[in-house]
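I am writing to request your help with a piece of structural work I have in hand. Here, with my thanks, is the record as I have it:
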Amino acid sequence: MLTLLLALSLSGAPATPAEHPLTAFMLQPDRVQIFLADMEHLDEKPAKKDRRPRVHGFVFTRAGPELKEEEHQALAKTWVSPEDTRPTQPTRCIFNPDIALRFLHGNAWVDAVVCFGCREIMFFDTKGNSINGGSFRDLEPIRKLAVKAFPKEDFRGE
């Protein structure tokens, strides 16, 4: 696989989403966008005109701005790779997303769906598959970005 990635990068051919290493998304994304997120009400079918992003039972209810370069660089400094992430104790919170961050790299992306209540993050690839995306050492920078993007929302979570 490494040989294939090296060959593709040297040839200038665009890599497919499966060939992008996770670090490219988290440390060197082309863009990062923030969204308000909520549970998808599965008993209601979305209207055909409803083109809001959805992933694994979550709907991104409102798009926020793309993060500035210095903002996503600050996030990158707090990201912990899957290999270095320690298991956490389960919480009593039922995961209820507050926001999502979409890390875009080329035509692919990784979504990080965040619940401030239980301080958990779920990661999904471009196809909506759950992935081990690592974690962030500190959710406070993410909370500050959420408050800045959506000042009328309550992101206390606890």
